[in-house]
Write a structure and sequence with these properties.
The protein is α+β, with helices and mostly antiparallel strands. The protein is built from three helices and six strands; from the N terminus they run βαββββααβ.
Length: 111
Amino acid sequence: MKYLMFVCTDTEPDTDPSAAPDIEKWVAERDARGQRLAGDRLAPPTAATTVRVRGGELLVSDGPFAETKEVIVGFDLLECADLDEAIDVARNHPMAYAGRIELRPFWNPDA
């Protein structure tokens, strides 16, 4: 089952950063196990462009549309047997300590 893992900042990170795993090791382990299909960091929110169409009119604005302190800073595409495995992958990501991780399964219309 495929999951998109959003890697996000958080206004309340763990106060013990020494507990966080090394990102290079996390990537290497997930790649070796075939759990991580793709992933990358994202440019800062100031580089975002929001696109909407309202009443047939194209509206383009700079920056993210949502007013939030937490932002998505990266993503990973995961292949896991189930949600429990995806949670285990996410809990070992360094940003689970310094930020937050959001997991979303890909849409399955047959489920």
